[in-house]
Amino acid sequence: MSIPSSTPGYVLSQATDAQALQTIALHHLAFAPQLTAEGYLEREVSLRETRFAKDHLTTWVLTASNSSEILCSCETYTHDVVLKSPDGIRQGKCLAIASVYTAPKHRRKGFCGSMIEMLRDQHLGGTIASTLYSDIGPLYYANKGWDVLPSVSAVMTVGVEAPNAASLASDVVISRENLVPFVARSRESLIAHVEGAALSTVAVLPTVHKILWFAKRAEIYARLLSLPISSEMLATLGVHHEDQFVLWYPDLAEKKLYILHVHNPSRRDVRVMAEASIAYAGECGCETVIVWDPDWSGWETKDMRKETRKDSLSSLRIVDARPDVACHLAANEKYA
Q1: Average pLDDT of the residues in 165-188
Q2: Contacts with 274 (C-beta within 8 Å, 6 or more apart), sequence order
Q3: What gap in Å lies between CA 219 and CA 230, rounded to an integer?
Q4: Residues 168, 280: contact at Cβ < 8 Å?
Q5: For the chain, what is the radius of gyration of the CA atoms?
Q6: How confident is the model at residue 140 (pLDDT cuts 50, 70, 90)?
Q7: How far from 165 is each of 237, 257, 286, CA to CA, in Å?
Q8: Which of 11, 109, 302, 305 is most buried, taking the most CB atoms under 10 A from its CB?
Q9: 93-123: b or e for each residue (b if 16 or more CB lie within 10 Å)?
């Protein structure tokens, strides 16, 4: 598939297999400096073999119409989404834009802006919303039509006295074997939340395959960085307690445990979840636990601090949105 450019002489196309490999080589140092070029290629090829990537990933390249040289590139993923607006409630697809990259010699020539605008204007696949997470500040994508959302995190330090994750009982662990019903509960809860919201609200719905994509990523880093983490630890995707549960992703390169999703329908104290997360982080060699835009109850441990993120700034665009109606993003979390 190709998208004609508003700038004559350029075209945005779905990357061929060869072009996708070329983009990986181009942005290796920008996106994964901890890995060798060979390791980064292995990471990307392995992730593209996951069910989530096969079903939802597209790599895009902008080229001149008379040349095969890649001027800039990005990836898009599609997610399930539910939206409540003045026009009613509907479910559809959200286009997530990621891995935006322009080689240094092609920067400041407007290529990236043209690529983003073309993706925005095509409403690919009938998408009703779009998300992206900016690492270049709030203004660039805001000027392209995305609303920058509050991007606050709870950051908890993993101290030397962190409890041992080996103490986690097997009946509270979430793994591949029992993941499906937990994701189903989250989807049902988020849909009900959006339906009952007083304001225009959108929620990106988690899927089993996206959670397993994160798990695969952790496995890859453990292998490539030769980290002494057991397969049992890597197979632990989260924990549950009563009607609460959390799903997580250990970013082993950055030594951070990201909480992908918090399910807490009764809005009770999540201290048990916080302690379990800190314990697991310590076992994985992570130095911090990070929760995006949490309901603060229970996360406020003595070592917790609130931080406004300087990168991964949450940004949202609703297709055909009314200019006088602001839209709230429910569950502004890492999984999305």
Answers
A1: 86
A2: 156, 289, 298, 299, 301
A3: 10
A4: yes
A5: 20
A6: very high
A7: 13, 13, 12
A8: 11
A9: bbbbbebbbbbeebeeeebbebbbbbbbeee
Q: SS3 for 129?
A: strand
- Name the nearest CA neighbour of 299 among 252, 253, 333, 324: 333
Q: HEC states along 41-78?
A: HHHHHHHHCCHHHHHHEEEEEEEECCCCCEEEEEEEEE
Tokens of 174: 């979430």
Torsion of CA 21, 99, 327, 320, to 10 degrees: -50
Determine the Cα–Cα distance for residues 171 and 190; give it in Å rounded to an integer: 25
Contact 115, 88 (CB under 8 A): no
Instruction: Return the SS3 of 181.
Output: helix
207-250 pLDDT, tens per residue? 999 999 999 999 999 999 999 999 999 999 999 988 899 999 99
